[in-house]
Amino acid sequence: MLMAVAALGCLAIAGCSGSPAGSASSENVSQASTLSSASSSASAVSSSQASSESSSEQNTAPSLLTSASMEDGPNSVGNVNDGDLGTYWAANGQGQWLQFQVNPAKPLGGISIAWHKGNEREAYYEVLASDNGQDWYTVVARTESSGGLSQTDVKFHTQIDMPFIRVVGYGNSGGSSWNSITEASLLFCDDYACAPKCDAYPACISDNAPATSSMSSSTNASTSSVASSAAPVNPNAAYPVEVVPDIARWKITLPVDSNGNDSSGGSSKDDINHNADEIKDEQLEMLLREPHFFVENGEIVFNAHCAGATTSGSSYPRSELRQRVGGGDNYWSVDDLQYISVDLRVTETPVHKPEISVVQIHGPEDEPLRVQYSANSPGGIWYIWNETNKVYLDPSKDNFEYKLGQRLRVDVTVEGGRIYLYLKNLDNGQTYANDWESSDSTGFFKVGAYTQSSIYLQSIKGDDAQNEPADAAGEVRVSRIHLFETYEGETTGVRPGESNNTETPAQETGADIPSVITNGTLFDLEGGAQNLSPLINNKTLQFLPLVAQHTTSGGNGLRHEYKIKSSERVDFFATYEKFKATVKVEMSNGGKTIISQIHGGVDVTTLLKVFVADTNESGFEDSQASNGIFDVYARIQVSSDEDKMALGTIRSGESFDLEVINNHGLVTITAFGKTFERNSVDDGLAYFKFGNYLQSQNPNGSVKCGTPGDTQSMLDCYAQFGIRNAIVTMTDVSYVRM
């Protein structure tokens, strides 16, 4: 996902005229990508839309920069002004926004919006305006769309002449948190019957009540906090179960006992109340215990004050979920597949020891993992692994930094006795990954606010420590938890890489995956153990070799891919076949994978390979190892040699279209607008493969490491070179053979 993605173009009720401000009227604005600023908390990637119109009129429509808090895949911000009701912008989550920046500001009186699936459901939203992109006024209070697929005018109660207009979405009546707009345009007063400007403008815009949709910093004497980034509560997210549908798989520990008492009124750690209340299973679904556990703006708020009650084994308070493994207080095995993915924000910390734990693995003896935020840590995040080992992330070394109030994704995978940690700052896009062998054989997950300080901190830590004020607290806001567990051979939850949301872009757009690929008649699956099917939904395939952990006796890495069944293989020159897909690669720097190949069956090992690689192999567009730029290239066997073809470059998370054709030995590769043709050599019983074949090698020099057939040696090799993430997602997939 991209944060604050923007498209530059002309937009008005009657279309575009004139040219962007500051340019000659006859100047062509070509398509390009630049980095600019869209808000105080996010960088914006903007692409210029072509406009070659010229005009001598003085009264022209202003240029607009259309941006968004995020976009999802092909459902990008540029779709809202392409004139096509079949395309749309989409973003998942409460408070996601679509923004127009008018340059220069011009009087306007409304906005016209067409909502995706508007004939099936109501969209919940509000409209805000701002002079500076920081301080916001509510122009249209939270409302719902009126139905239908075409654009509907929403008239403002007052004329507005502010440059920033923002539509903030709060999900829809279909029960999901998706916000999807097909078309949107501003209604300027030149062509629209605007209401007169209200008295006492601009305070009268929202009755002297500026909106709080923009994140702003605030502090007081006893706590460091960040205001919520979302505006009014969405009725669809009033209770915990509406944020985390399977919250009954957890129990909550609160910083008060069952009578509501905390630990205040004492003089030392001996006076701590160790009878923290616990509430579990279905009782959690509708539980609201302000200020410690409640729902606000589509997030579950976990707040643990420093005077809180604690559990019997701790000196610190918590408002924290504990996984109920197998429906009870059990432990899963680290040898089985366990997975959790959490989207959260740390919004408050204590004063003197500003630390808070957000995600843990707890074992019977040790803590195999604890992820914490500390205002005193260089990168904000640090973590403990195997109880005693501490890693403080440093922006200068780890290229990762997290600040109070930003959105953080914490992904933890446990399998084969190892723990894999993946962090992503969802606001700046930075990522970090590491893995290690677990010191415990069993464990369970914990999520929430485990405040690492106390009003009795001096008694706990010694004379050098300072006791916290009674109202100091730690607070974490969680917007998503994806939990998968394996316990005593039974699995619960949605597996890693799969979505339980019924409205992903891949489900709404693109072609269905051909059944001939997945039904076993033509293709076999390599790496399908533990029911790890690449088929996420009927339009999406996702290949996860680090989860599948499948290797072959002659292979150079782990693979998760489809291949033509042995019974269906034919001579290369006797075959016409065509494969097409949109390919998205998410991979650690230094990674290398094969996404498509034609494998020989008799005389030649491989006739064709299509690689995505961040290595220093020469001859391609980048050819620099581990710099985050992945060369996409092909190798085709021609006579006794291989021809190498540089197709293009991508970064992790980006997509490209690929087409591979074998026309009876004439191989054609098309990607990035380039097409290469080569006559390859014949081979009997050749077969087509595609997916994610993660290569086990040093990105510098391409020296192979790991032992063929030995999964652990492959994993050790990846760990040595920092390859901890390798996901290939394919949509719009087609395959024909004649």
TrEMBL record:
Pfam families: Alginate_lyase2, F5_F8_type_C
Residue segments, region Disordered: 42-81, 212-232, 491-512
Polar residues bias spans: 498-507
Residue stretches of biased makeup (Low complexity): 42-61
InterPro entries: Alginate_lyase_2 (IPR014895), ConA-like_dom_sf (IPR013320), FA58C (IPR000421), Galactose-bd-like_sf (IPR008979)
Keywords carried by this UniProt record: Signal
SUPFAM superfamilies listed in its UniProt record: Concanavalin A-like lectins/glucanases, Galactose-binding domain-like
Residues of the F5/8 type C domain: 42-189
Leader sequence residues: 1-21
Protein name: F5/8 type C domain-containing protein
Native source species: Marinagarivorans cellulosilyticus
Lineage per the UniProt record: Bacteria, Pseudomonadati, Pseudomonadota, Gammaproteobacteria, Cellvibrionales
